[in-house]
Amino acid sequence: MHGMEMLQKGDAPHLQAMKKMTGLMESPQKMQEWMEERRKEFEALPDE
Known about the structure:
Elements: H1 2-9, H2 12-25, H3 28-44
């Protein structure tokens, strides 16, 4: 939903992210690597 709202608004950062994700989805290995990087970033965030 959020992604669709930003797409409709023409939000440049979201459009760039969607384009990158589309490219990643073409390669399961690249998508897995990207997801692992995001997981590590998330786990490194402080607990609040």
